[in-house]
Amino acid sequence: MRLVRYRDPDGGRTGLLTDGGVIDLVDALSREPDVTPAERSACSDTVSLIGQGERGLQLMGRAASSDCPRRRLADITLLAPIEPRLILCSGENYWDHRDEKPEVDGREPEFFLKNPLGVIATGEPILLDRHVTNKLDYEVELLIVIGKSGRHIPETQALEHVFGYSIMNDVTARDRQVRLRADGSSYYALGPGKSFDTCAPIGPAIVTRDEVGDPQQLAIRTLVNREVRQENNTGKMIWTVAQLVAFFSTYITLRPGVVISTGTPGGTGWGSDPELGARVNGRKLVNAATRYLSPGDEVVCEIEHIGQLRNRVAAAPGVSGPHP
To answer: So what's the pLDDT on residue 95?
Structure first.
């Protein structure tokens, strides 16, 4: 099943994305006499719905099989499918992305946070704010949506805590993230490089775990202006989905509505930028980037069985020219 949020004149609503359109969850369940008002109310918000666990999945199934009218996608505006409590991120999780960056010595997943205030939906603009960055970059990533609370979760049980998956574009300000020393070595500032307005497009839907199947067998790619820039498979992750869930649960009690972004493959704009220490080493890219993102560019992030996350880049209002 594919869980979405969308906007109507009364505000945000939740629904199921089907071939025939979007089924409104609350409307569909209002036709079910054994669904309590409290359960219907919980279905109006994706985090609350996910928090109902198995009962939430049952209610989604009931809605999917109902005869509730479908809303045409052309008639609604999709929102980000979740307003996450917390965005946990793992960097450096594909060898080909490690290979295009300044050398690092990481023996466990890179751990950083992204601000949920930066979440936007498919179709919304990624804002290029020249006061923040002149080197705006894309990163397609598989997004894990936690459905069951846990701390110190064993790797063998980790997938039981996953509700489903979505796509995130880990939009990055490279000239804020990367700092080069005089000797050529580097260090990272992941706060300013990763958290700013519109830094986290998520969508188009959350696809339940059963429909996605094996999360380590998904084709993943990015297109910029229809040109393929990143292309790989989640089977090439250094740390698997199960390993990442177990790792992050060491530090934080994972709760429904927490999401984990799993890193990006090679082929970023950074990978072609010698000013920031790129070291492509002759690796064959599908189409090597010649510049960073600019207003008007369309970025499409695709993951097999999940869909496409589409966003155009726009200049931030009232901001022009490079920052001094």
So the answer is: 80
Give me the mean pLDDT over the 185-206 stretch.
92
User: What is residue 8's predicted lDDT score, i.e. its pLDDT?
Assistant: 80
Return the beta strands (E) in 59-199 as ranges.
70-71, 77-79, 86-91, 110-114, 119-120, 126-128, 136-137, 140-146, 162-169, 172-173, 178-180, 186-188
Do 120 and 224 belong to one domain? yes
HEC profile for 14-67? EEEEECCEEEEHHHHHCCCCCCCHHHHHHCCCHHHHHHCCHHHHHHHHHHHCCC
Q: What is the mean pLDDT of residues 226-231?
A: 96
Q: How many residues does the chain have?
A: 324
**For residues 59-75, b (16+ Cβ closer than 10 Å) or e, as one string?**
bbebbeebebebbeeee
- Distance, CA of 94 to CA of 319 (rounded, Å): 35
One domain, residues 183 and 214: yes
Tell whether 164 and 24 lie within a shared domain: no
Q: Are 122 and 310 in contact (CB under 8 A)?
A: yes
